[in-house]
Amino acid sequence: MAEVATELVGAVESLLGARIPVRLTAWDGSTAGPPGAPGLVLRNRRALRRLLWHPGELGLARAYVSGDIDTAPDTDLYEVLSAVGRFSDRTDVHRPGLADVLSRPGRRALRTALVTGAVGPQPAPPPEEVPKGHGRAHSRRRDREAISHHYDVGNDFYGLVLGPSMVYSCAYWTPGAKSLEAAQEAKLDLICRKLGLRPGLRLLDVGCGWGSLLLHAARHYGVSAVGVSISAEQVEYARRRVADAGLADRIEVRLQDYREIPDGPFDAISSVGMAEHVGAVQYLGYARGLYGLLTPGGRLLNHQISRRPDRPGEPYVPSPFINRYVFPDGELAPVGSTVSLLEEAGFEVRDVESLREHYALTLREWVANLEAHWQTAAQLVGRGRARVWRLYMAASAVAFEENRIGINQVLAVRTTEAGASGLPATREQWLAEARHSSDRHRSEHPADTDLGDRPSVR
């Protein structure tokens, strides 16, 4: 038989009517594909079986997570993901169907599959693939299961990836932010300023993660705060950080669903990287619930990943890899849909800011952290799960860079009965107003803000 890589590339290109965007190296050592293209290594025949049973994203992801496929030594993962993404968008590539099996290219592909050993039983998915949750999507039980799958994998692992800030959302890369930690602090401060925080106000942080925003708001803006999460490991970690900071009298962290909060009103609400878990069916209820928890004149800062609008005639299909391995039941919506639902719930939307490029930079920093601590990370969560995180973060970075997905901060207000928003006339004014409040609090309570220079509990 001819070299495996040559046979595979020839058969696939004949079937698709286009050159593939990667250079393949097969388990027999043979290499074929466009010179200079990013390289993929097929470790064994099982890699082909995964692709044959699930052509496209899911098959590639399963093969990568299991280690059946890897990048070539001279190729980084970003190059492969970018090349494959651009190729999948091309309109001149033939999408083979059942009828193509009987065509000459189809017969050649089938013969190649037989002689290379690609035909065989479907390989079991890697064990990191999450089983379907119990009950209907976005019920409270199933949401708890989905959140636990992603977030309850060990705080030590997240500490390696996220760094000392322990912030798992898009950083804000201002000109002065020379590190991930500085960019995350700039993001936390931006949120506090948009919300107009000042001493005496009461903040609710929905999906509070490991407590970083709560601590920043209490230390630098003098607020009292409540944070809720349905991740048990996050809540335990956040409570410990609050106690160590001596702020337990001003910050409460609860293991609680956003639908169960009984004790409004709050003067401000932050929801950072949480709304992607709500789901389209529940989103209006989510928005109405937060509206009902705000006092008139109160502000909501909704920080949420968005997707591009559906193409005409092509309904939205969630990423099978993300849904099965990373964020079960997670859903992305176009930013226009989010704004419309917030308005339908009663909010006045005052400001929308895109941070798309900022998230790409943030994700690359997380990937670099993971790669720098690879052996430790693999020991903590297993090699397969570490590969899941590396693939999803790198793929997400490319998706943000190439405008396949976005990230937006939406500032909305529950106006008073008279229609007043309470915001100054310009963005510059309301950002500066909150900055002055923070500066006053820092000067009056230096003991609080000194804590901000201490490393997070690891």
UniProtKB/TrEMBL annotation:
<dbReference type="InterPro" id="IPR003333">
    <property type="entry name" value="CMAS"/>
</dbReference>
<feature type="compositionally biased region" description="Basic and acidic residues">
    <location>
        <begin position="433"/>
        <end position="458"/>
    </location>
</feature>
<feature type="region of interest" description="Disordered">
    <location>
        <begin position="117"/>
        <end position="143"/>
    </location>
</feature>
<keyword id="KW-0489">Methyltransferase</keyword>
<dbReference type="InterPro" id="IPR020803">
    <property type="entry name" value="MeTfrase_dom"/>
</dbReference>
<keyword id="KW-0949">S-adenosyl-L-methionine</keyword>
<feature type="domain" description="Polyketide synthase-like methyltransferase">
    <location>
        <begin position="157"/>
        <end position="416"/>
    </location>
</feature>
<keyword id="KW-0808">Transferase</keyword>
<dbReference type="InterPro" id="IPR029063">
    <property type="entry name" value="SAM-dependent_MTases_sf"/>
</dbReference>
<dbReference type="Pfam" id="PF02353">
    <property type="entry name" value="CMAS"/>
</dbReference>
<protein>
    <submittedName>
        <fullName>Cyclopropane-fatty-acyl-phospholipid synthase family protein</fullName>
    </submittedName>
</protein>
<keyword id="KW-0443">Lipid metabolism</keyword>
<comment type="similarity">
    <text>Belongs to the CFA/CMAS family.</text>
</comment>
<dbReference type="InterPro" id="IPR050723">
    <property type="entry name" value="CFA/CMAS"/>
</dbReference>
<feature type="region of interest" description="Disordered">
    <location>
        <begin position="429"/>
        <end position="458"/>
    </location>
</feature>
